[in-house]
Amino acid sequence: MKKIFLIMAMILLSQTVLFASSETAINAYAIDNMFLFLAAVLVLFMQSGFAMLEAGLNRSKNVVNILFKNFMDMSLGVILYYAIGYSLMYGNSYLGGWFGFAGFGISSVPPTPAAGALNPQVDWLFQVAFAATAATIVSGSVAGRMQFKSYLIYSIIITGLVYPISGFWKWGGGWLDALGFYDFAGSIVVHSVGGFAGLAGALVLGPRIGRFSRNGQVNAIPGHNLALAALGVFILWIGWYGFNPGSQLAITGADNTNAVMLIATNTTLAAAAGAVFSMLLAWSLYKKPDLTMALNGALAGLVGITANCDSVTNNEAIIIGLVAGILVVLGIKLLDNLKIDDPVGAWPVHGLCGIWGGIATGIFGPYSLTSQIIGSVVIPIWAFGTMYALFTFLKSLGILRVSEEDELRGLDISEHGEEAYSGFQIFTAE
Amino acid sequence: MKKIFLIMAMILLSQTVLFASSETAINAYAIDNMFLFLAAVLVLFMQSGFAMLEAGLNRSKNVVNILFKNFMDMSLGVILYYAIGYSLMYGNSYLGGWFGFAGFGISSVPPTPAAGALNPQVDWLFQVAFAATAATIVSGSVAGRMQFKSYLIYSIIITGLVYPISGFWKWGGGWLDALGFYDFAGSIVVHSVGGFAGLAGALVLGPRIGRFSRNGQVNAIPGHNLALAALGVFILWIGWYGFNPGSQLAITGADNTNAVMLIATNTTLAAAAGAVFSMLLAWSLYKKPDLTMALNGALAGLVGITANCDSVTNNEAIIIGLVAGILVVLGIKLLDNLKIDDPVGAWPVHGLCGIWGGIATGIFGPYSLTSQIIGSVVIPIWAFGTMYALFTFLKSLGILRVSEEDELRGLDISEHGEEAYSGFQIFTAE
Amino acid sequence: MKKIFLIMAMILLSQTVLFASSETAINAYAIDNMFLFLAAVLVLFMQSGFAMLEAGLNRSKNVVNILFKNFMDMSLGVILYYAIGYSLMYGNSYLGGWFGFAGFGISSVPPTPAAGALNPQVDWLFQVAFAATAATIVSGSVAGRMQFKSYLIYSIIITGLVYPISGFWKWGGGWLDALGFYDFAGSIVVHSVGGFAGLAGALVLGPRIGRFSRNGQVNAIPGHNLALAALGVFILWIGWYGFNPGSQLAITGADNTNAVMLIATNTTLAAAAGAVFSMLLAWSLYKKPDLTMALNGALAGLVGITANCDSVTNNEAIIIGLVAGILVVLGIKLLDNLKIDDPVGAWPVHGLCGIWGGIATGIFGPYSLTSQIIGSVVIPIWAFGTMYALFTFLKSLGILRVSEEDELRGLDISEHGEEAYSGFQIFTAE
Amino acid sequence: MKLIIAIVQPQELPAIKEALLRKKIHKFTVSNVLGRGMETPIHEIYRGIAHDIKLLKKVRIEIAVNDEYVDAAVDAICSVAKGVDEEEGRGKIFVLPIEQCIRIRTGETGPTAIG
Amino acid sequence: MKLIIAIVQPQELPAIKEALLRKKIHKFTVSNVLGRGMETPIHEIYRGIAHDIKLLKKVRIEIAVNDEYVDAAVDAICSVAKGVDEEEGRGKIFVLPIEQCIRIRTGETGPTAIG
Amino acid sequence: MKLIIAIVQPQELPAIKEALLRKKIHKFTVSNVLGRGMETPIHEIYRGIAHDIKLLKKVRIEIAVNDEYVDAAVDAICSVAKGVDEEEGRGKIFVLPIEQCIRIRTGETGPTAIG
Lengths: 430, 430, 430, 115, 115, 115
Ligand SMILES: Nc1ncnc2c1ncn2[C@@H]1O[C@H](COP(=O)(O)OP(=O)(O)O)[C@@H](O)[C@H]1O
Ligand SMILES: Nc1ncnc2c1ncn2[C@@H]1O[C@H](COP(=O)(O)OP(=O)(O)O)[C@@H](O)[C@H]1O
Ligand SMILES: Nc1ncnc2c1ncn2[C@@H]1O[C@H](COP(=O)(O)OP(=O)(O)O)[C@@H](O)[C@H]1O
Hints:
heterohexamer, A: 430 residues, mainly alpha, Ammonium transporter fold, two-stranded antiparallel sheet, 14 helices, D: 115 residues, alpha+beta, Alpha-Beta Plaits, four-stranded antiparallel sheet, two-stranded antiparallel ribbon, 7 strands, 41% strand, binds adenosine-5'-diphosphate
């Protein structure tokens, strides 16, 4: 009797224990998925940051056009990445890790609840926010002169094909991953793709009218609203707390928790160092502290730390940000010297500092510098090459660039028949 | 001896187990309440989205007025919903489920900590954010011509009485709930209430001067700052990740976790589909891609998916968004044809697509189409009817609309003696 | 045999139990650190709120300058608070609790995972956001006339030295803490420090040209963009959900969960009451509802509730906000009467209502009124005194204020050679 | 040839444009100005400080016409811009002599270049 | 009747307004213009590119007066707008003949309509 | 002394400035105006409602010159502002007499004050 009682008690007890244990797993499942969900929301918020930054750094006559491009990068991006992109990026590996595929849409089968198990719905949400980021970086580089419909074609192709394919190479478990290349949150996989696609666009399109005089002089085309531009950078900085910490993909388990916190602080330190040192360099070069340089410097620091925020110390994060802040100032100068017109500095920020982030991972982190260099060269080449081809093709169709008259009048009127600041008196001449 | 030892050990052990189990419950309590708290913050953030959107879509001479109305919807809404609204909405049922009441203020007695148990303080916070949303939708419809003090009276009445009463019918467990009507996060309970209250306002007030010419011509009164308008929509989209996912009210437990993630993705897909398809329809109708239409399209998709985001598939979410995107373009046209002046399109977005959301829940979800139709008709009628009466009453007192001179000069100067853009040269004529 | 079996089973079982228990602790660790991380992100978001508010309330010719100052408060603040500030504020106590120190940088040693245990990385992140807040409050008070490089010196000193030292007195466990002074989230420790430092700046700098006529007349210098100003306040309100609830520093454990929810609701109620009652008072005094007063009123309510949001009831929160809303209107009047030019009202909002918050904690909360008064007097004196000395020193070096010509032309051109609204036609005269 | 400069209330511009068109005057140039005349100033309040805006928003219309059109133009403007009640601040019209007029596109000069 | 067009530095407008009022000249029209004269250009830098703003912000004041007021108006403007140091860019005054002046409100014409 | 008022297309301003400088005309004043002439209106759509913007953005250049410079100034403007194709909307130039000119800085008057 007593033994039976004891045994029954023990069975009951062990079930309670198991129950408690699985309840703990269920809690962990809730936490991790909530964490990724909130991170995705923060990354999606970056879209408004890009929109404000790029709008602010361009002329008022092109504001509707830029906002619209950003908005469509997000909207079309969602549709395309849902239909095909996600599957290409995280599908089964084919062709020796150069290509992935896993059907259309998103799985609706939730995993067994456990710490670190991610519901595919939220995983997609997080990933689509990254895809939209890569796409929208370009809108700044091609601002003020590209036809809207061509931009939509570009946007569809980058989120549906180009970004997912190179994304697969690393994050989908493709050949670059096998090679030991490391890119924690996407200095290379996301930012350099956007930055180099933008460079291709800027090159194929050519500069805006008046940006470079025939006599070789470089002219400024100042942004029309630096309050919006600053707001954009503040928002991007905030959104990066989803971008980098979220890329840990889980927060339960002490290692994950600690990693997320380190990542958040490293991200902050790199951004601040980028802002401060790009300000100082520009100040010493041009004798005045230039807000737009400091803003770009913060972004440069953020891009630089993205690949390695989980694998460097706080002091190294400051160094990485500092170098990025200097690189971005030099990169802007370089483009001017090469007579390439990148209105918002997308290449210096995302392209150049993206590569710096990839290589810094090899310098400061525990990763092979060789693999880092390979990845940091191959992916930019892929993005640049495919996009150069696409822009050239669109150009050959005659639908890439607007007419000179339309450009002078502004894309808002010529492409959309809608002005951003109706009623405001805006200098049409200077 | 040994048995006693064994039994004592087992008692100890079982207490540890219970302790572990209750610790798990305490964790779950923390998670769920934190989840709702963060969702409430996101929904409150929507207030700034509405403010920016509505300000941006109106003339610069009315910006202070609109911002002030939105700000007071939030501030007065908090006070009123605290004093009385919350109690009316979630009180004990009277009059056969047509009316609820539970005293004044918010309970400060926390529940027994457990998964899904909500502290009344955070429950109120989440709910008040919804009330403020319903209220602030109207400010766009009545923009540019309503007296500020009348608007405050309206705002007090909608958050203190009208919204809570119909809210009770469904979410407080009233008669519509008993009928089987389903509205997950408020396509009907929140958005259609705002949209139809706004329609009542637009009708009783009449159009702004110059909106419709005597010869029947429809004139555009373009928004003064589309950058702000776009920012507003980006923020609203982000805020919706509190609105819809938060309405699950809990995230622990695998079912809740999975539901939240599905909801977030469906919300995203519907918004994107709404944006893309309203752009395409407007493009084909008017030959130019119109940014404000695409922005409204995204909101339309968000409103449409609100009632059913937990009960449809990803593909259905896209369809719901797509239809909403088309409806909003047609709804704007319809109002123009009927010579109703709704400056920001609050009725097409929140009223019409709110109803679409309610009915789509019956079409795609597992809910009775009849109940859905009843609910989707009765609540809009309630909001429209009570508000039409209120606006008519205010009109009879002669305090509804500003004088013609004040309207031409702009409400900022006439009502507030304060201009939004001091120093900017603004075209006073076109 | 059986007994051995039983005992072994029990050992296994107990290990499972311990394991479950420690898994629960690990979950709690994840939750609490995630909570603080998200709170830190919300507080950092406040930086953009300050930037928009202060930019909006000043003339367009000083916008770049203000944005830049805010941006550097954040960037330099991060670097300085990393290098030295954090250690001064949360170090070991010296000199009888008047001074703390703990080396440079942040510890990278994570704690044993448990509920309430905080990773030092995230603790720093949360704290640095507060330091940047204190610093950036001042930028509004000194707007329109201070040299940029002097501002950077100020910014370095407040985040590196002044704020951490008085912060240590209370939050680092120094002498004010020992005295029983209570300041939950920083009405005194953060806001009054910023507000009184700003007052010192405004006094030493003197008013902007034209603010007070020689005949004693007070002139308005209206803000150039009230849409931005309103956006700023909306963002600040949202950010305060990190500031106050986050200061609980943990959310797991029913007491913490309940406290966070109460804090969030009290914060909301005080903000709303501040907005409504400052609007009403200004309306009755000046016959028109003034948006900027209502905006300041909400901030006043938020500042007032910051010290005591965890220790008062909902109704008391409304009273605290109401009083703050009245104080801010009177404080603005007072400064005008004293001919002190505080362009954004930083002292009435953060200084005066900060003190009100500190004292209200003694009136409504369970804390000694005497201790509250001591703390609420000593810390403002510290901030005012040190900063008055610093500004006077900078003045004696001749680098405090820009030349009259530069001020008239605007700091954007004279200090940065960059205009915020390139292309917009702005009235250079009125 | 005369240059007619009319300074009017902004809200009257649409009606004036129509009135001019009815008189077959199709070409003119408009700019935004601030005017100080007899009109009551706008009373504004910013953070508790009252201040009067005495330079009020006006619209300035420049119309170059041949001599025989002067009266028609002046009448057209006066008829609509004078308002119903005789409130102050309705504005002024100044007529200045033009010595020469050139159509940039063709180089045409004199009276035929004006329209 | 004469039309006085003065182009001055923006920051001097308040003083000029007062000086005019002291001379009993109460009515004028102001607009924002960009001027190019002898003044040193503003040197701006945007993202590392120096550019000079040579069209500087000025204010244009139009005052229609009867002949006997011309000197008073010109003196009033010159007295305050000339600045202390003889810096360049203080501006110009042009006096043009007006042939006719009409007060829109009343239809009044000629010298009595101007004030 | 003459006052040359030229109303031109905004995008031509840089070229006009250069052309004037080449003719040694260094001083002028520029403002933004809206013009209605023969040019095709801009067609805009806002939320499904088509509306034509008929008042198009133009730039107004005022140049006060001594009589012997009038032709040079007019030629300079015409040469660049007339555009390649003879499209409508290229603008007009009006020449008005100036009776007096004063340099505010020095009080100098007459022809020498103008430049
Ligand atoms: N003598 C003047 N010189 C220049 N502008 C004038 C003059 N008189 C009137 N104005 C312009 O006309 C506007 C209206 O003039 P006002 O005298 O108020 O009208 P009214 O004659 O109807 O009272 C003024 O705001 C100003 O811009
Ligand atoms: N001949 C002119 N025609 C038109 N505007 C002129 C002329 N001369 C001067 N101005 C205007 O006056 C402003 C100041 O002229 P400037 O010659 O620099 O002054 P100063 O004579 O004191 O050196 C110029 O920016 C321009 O707007
Ligand atoms: N008679 C006029 N009076 C005032 N402004 C005129 C006149 N004629 C032309 N303009 C200005 O010149 C601009 C161009 O004139 P338009 O007649 O279209 O040029 P074009 O002669 O080349 O066809 C107009 O938009 C208007 O601003």
